[in-house]
Specification:
By secondary structure, the protein is an alpha/beta fold. The chain is built from six helices and twelve strands. Strand 3, helix 3 and strand 4 form a beta-alpha-beta unit. The protein is globular and about 50 Å long.
Length: 231
């Protein structure tokens, strides 16, 4: 990857003529992701994220930490937090903002154990495809201390396939409807496309059961999104 996401974060952090990120998927038009949103404080976070941070306990792993907003909030409240991300630029920004423990790595490379694993901002996206959910959950389960928890959010995007008559135009022979191709561009340069997974709650719960995890619905958002606790 070109790490355009990391470049955008660094430009904003260093006040170097930053621009907003442009995103799209194979089923949606281009949308603007304001860089400032990734540097938000607790009061500006969605209710699902605020709830997850309030439920976090013990030693915490912040998966896909981005600009470090979640890690910083928890750190300021006395928690030991480790932020990991596959974006080199994101990790640099986290360090510049004061996150004490960071590492450039995928969650699949993690071997430490934690009391809480946070995977927010459509956390199920990191699973990429439905076929990988169970194996990835199994690895995450191995990172939990006794009585540990995973706090993860996602959305049921079935509504995006609804037509004017209230029916759905999904291809019955296609892959799971939450599997998307995700596109990102910054300052006119395009990132290599990636797979991104939106997972409805019932499908997540079923996958959890296959690997011996309990899945509890913690909170529903305002637009088909939800926060789940796995333990």
């Amino acid at each position: 990857m070109k790490d355009l996401f990391g470049k955008a974060l660094l430009d904003y952090q260093n006040k170097e003529n930053s621009e907003d990120i442009i995103t799209s998927t194979n089923i949606s038009e281009e949308d603007v992701l304001p860089i400032s949103y990734l540097f938000r404080s607790f009061k500006d976070m969605p209710k699902l994220e605020q709830k997850a941070l309030k439920l976090a306990k013990g030693k915490i792993l912040d998966v896909g930490c981005g600009a470090g907003s979640h890690s910083l909030y928890l750190q300021k409240n006395g928690f030991q937090v480790k932020g990991i991300d596959i974006s080199k630029g994101a990790i640099e920004v986290c360090k510049l903002r004061g996150v004490k423990q960071t590492e450039l790595k995928s969650f699949l490379e993690e071997i430490e154990t934690f009391d809480t694993i946070l995977i927010l901002m459509n956390g199920t996206g990191i699973f990429q495809e439905l076929s990988q959910v169970s194996s990835h959950l199994k690895h995450l389960k191995s990172l939990l201390k006794p009585k540990g928890q995973i706090l993860i959010d996602s959305s049921d995007i079935k509504y995006m396939y609804e037509d004017d008559d209230g029916g759905f135009w999904m291809d019955a022979h296609a892959n799971y409807y939450g599997e998307l191709d995700y596109y990102l561009s910054y300052k006119g340069e395009k990132e290599i496309p990636m797979k991104w997974l939106y997972l409805d709650f019932n499908t997540l719960k079923l996958a959890c059961e296959t690997v011996g995890l309990h899945c509890e619905l913690v909170l529903k958002g305002e637009h088909y999104d939800y926060l789940a606790k796995l333990y």
